[in-house]
Amino acid sequence: MADVEMMSSDSESIDGDSYDFRSLLSSLEIDFLIRNNGDQVKIDSLEGKKLGFYFSDKEDEICQIFTQKLVDVYKELSSKGDFEIIFASWDYSDDTFEEFFSEMPWLAIPFLLFYLEETLDELDDFFFQERDVPRLVILDEHGKVVTDDGVSLIQKYGVDGYPFSAERFKELKEEEEKARREQTIRSILASPSSSRDFVISSDGNKVPVSKLEGKTVGLYFSLSSCKSCVDFTPKLVEVYKKLEEKGESFEIVLISLDDEEKSFKESFGGMPWLALPFKDKSCENLARYFELSTTPTVVIIGPDGKTLQSNVAEDIEEHGIQAYPFTPQKFAELAEMEKAKEMVQTLESILVSGDLDFVIGKDGVRIPVSDLVGKNILLYFSAHHCLECHHFLPKLIESYHEIKAKDEPLEVVFISSDNDQASFDKSFSEMPWLALPFGDARKSSLSRRFKVIGIPMLVAIGSSGRTVTKEAKDLITMYRAKAYPFTEERLKEVEAEYEEMAKEWPEKVKYRWDKKRELTLMHMMHYRCDECNEYGQVWAYRCKEYDIKLHPKCALEAEAKGTESESESMDEETERWVCGGDMSIGFCSSSPLSRGRQISVLFGI
Predict the structure, then answer these.
(1) In angstroms, how far is the first alpha carbon of the chain from the final one?
(2) What is the spatial order of strands in the sheet that 32-34 belongs to?
(3) Which of 4, 147, 146 lies closest to 66, judged by CA?
(4) Which of 193, 375, 395, 557 is the 20 to 30 A CA-CA neighbour of 502?
(5) Where are the alpha helices (DSSP H) in 21-116?
(6) Cβ neighbours of residue 187 closer than 8 Å, sequence gap 6 or more
(7) Beta bridge partners of 221
(8) 440 pLDDT exceeds 90?
(9) What's the pLDDT tens digit per position in 142-182?
(10) Do residues 159 and 77 touch, judged by C-beta distance below 8 A?
(11) Sign for the pseudo-dihedral over CA of 200, 201, 207, 213
């Protein structure tokens, strides 16, 4: 249940600084900007207007998503005539610039001129130190920077943020705080600006919002193109109908995020509850008001009109009708039930469901779950399309073989999130262990039980059948096979070994490429060494100020090379400092990624 989440810059703010926009563009040595139809617009004509400098890149998915949002805002404000956006492209070719700019109704700096390095540097000096995109810097009519984080503000407030002044943003914040204090079901669902005081049914009838007062109401934020929403809706329908049959005072209102009316009608037509009208402005306002970050989301509003829960979608997936009435007391009861269930959990209770009492081997042979009882089991949630899964798999295979070589009672069961049989077959062909068959119904229940919200995920089940940890992926990443069998006792032993190992290392070393910079020994779960470009874990020498990270081995060898007269003795000392054998996995591991552009940022590591 995940959706794309927009990211804002964390660079130093420049709010309040003032600039002459003409001087910002002086290095171009031209007096015009362009529109996507080729028209030229004199720079002087922008005098007295509010300006947004929009730095963006077509190759960046977040830039593409945000640009569509910005287009909608710009079109709504175009009639005012006092706001203009200037596109500054980070694209690498004229073709991608032209293609991206064709989607934009505003002005742009001509691509070939903008791509001059000195122009980039000059704009950098004015606006920011890092070339992060998307970036929107808004200047008021006097050239004063209102904000250098216009992306977040446009995402949050949209056109309501106009005229993008500090006073307006303060006013909006105060309005939100007041709305939360005085929240009612009417203030949430009715629209005073359009005089709409109703919601609609799937047959087109208008239902007064007043009919919902005194009821528990679920606001269902959904997107028809979102697979998670499509999979979740039938479960929500089931819960809704059961509550309706029991005569419970409960209603659901769909808050559709669809852009096409056809998609809205097709999805809403199969739902038994109410909805806000298609493209109603309240849909966007409510997504902002409830700080929507993922779909599907079900916000629960209590009978008093106050927010009870910010999102119960996963609770409905896991507990169904038992989650009703979604109160804190009910969730406390469910938590106690879960604890009791975990105490009597067995491998069969996890992996057996009716006639589905087997897993499969490499040759497709069915292996009874009963054959796995008494072993330590790793449930590996993964998929062929997942980049991080490809990155993690070699570590898991290496650890698996090392553990099995010691005749340990371990088995791994692959639980696929692949979209088709062919992808499953590719994934499974790379793995030396067992799996649930593709499309197995047990996958959904296992995902709910262990709250799988991202892959890869690795759950360790002990020989008793109880859950040992849901964080086995992080433990394998950090300690490899040494983490087995993943118990708290074993982890304390491993951590003690690494603490002992580090006692002989100096707390600080000099960075050999700049002796003024000191690197400090510290724990790091996973990183790429800036010396050898390979991955490491557990210990690193790091300079936080410049974000330099080195393996202990690399840092100590580099320091040794820095003092030629002591090189021989230091080399011998380095050999003593760097433990051989299994311990070496604490420092270096080969990377499957290219040496070119680093993409580890995709993995959040």
Answers:
(1) 21
(2) 40-42, 32-34, 107-108, 83-89, 50-56, 135-139, 145-147
(3) 4
(4) 395
(5) 21-24, 61-77, 94-101, 111-114
(6) 179, 305
(7) 255, 297
(8) yes
(9) 888 888 889 988 988 888 899 888 888 889 889 888 988 99
(10) yes
(11) negative
pLDDT at residue 23, rounded to an integer: 63
Q: Which residue has the tokens 């003593």?
A: 576
The rounded distance, in Å, linking the Cα atoms of 197 and 211 is: 11
Instruction: Decide: 304 and 187 in contact? Cβ < 8 Å.
Output: no
Q: Give dist(CA 144, CA 243) in Å, integer.
A: 56
pLDDT of residue 598 exceeding 60 = no
Asked if 149 contacts 156 with a C-beta cutoff of 8 angstroms, the reply is no
Q: Please write the tens of the pLDDT for every residue from 296-354.
A: 999 999 999 999 999 999 899 888 999 999 999 999 999 898 888 888 899 999 999 99
Which amino acid, residue 590?
Answer: S
Angle at 524 between CA 528 and CA 478, to 5 degrees: 85
Token output for 50 = 């509010």
pLDDT of residue 579: 35
**DSSP-based three-state secondary structure for 410:** strand
SS3 per residue for 108-138: ECCHHHHCCHHHHHHHHHHHCCCCCCCEEEE
pLDDT per residue over 46-89, tens digit each? 989 999 999 998 888 889 889 999 999 999 999 999 999 999 88
The angle, 0 to 180 degrees and rounded to 10, between the axes of the packed helices 150-157 and 61-77 is 60
- For tokens 């919601």, name the residue: 199
3-state secondary structure of 88: strand
Question: Which amino acid belongs to residue 195?
Answer: S
Work out the number of other CB atoms within 10 angstroms of the CB of residue 433.
19
Phi, psi of 220 (to 5 degrees): -100, 100
Round to whole Å and give the CA distance between 347 and 461: 8
pLDDT for 29 beyond 70: no
Confidence grade of residue 500 (pLDDT, cut at 50, 70, 90): confident
Are 319 and 337 in contact, with CB atoms under 8 Å apart? no
Decide: 466 and 486 in contact? Cβ < 8 Å: no
* Rg of the chain, C-alpha, whole Å: 29
Distance, CA of 602 to CA of 387 (rounded, Å): 8
**pLDDT for the residue 41:** 92
pLDDT in tens, 224-276: 988 889 989 999 999 999 999 999 999 999 999 998 999 999 999 999 999 99
Pairing mode, strands 216-222 and 250-256: parallel
Q: Which of 299, 25, 75 lies closest to 189 in space, CA to CA?
A: 299
| Total residues belonging to the chain | 605
More confident residue, 350 or 122: 350
| Res. 90 pLDDT band, cuts 50 70 90 | confident
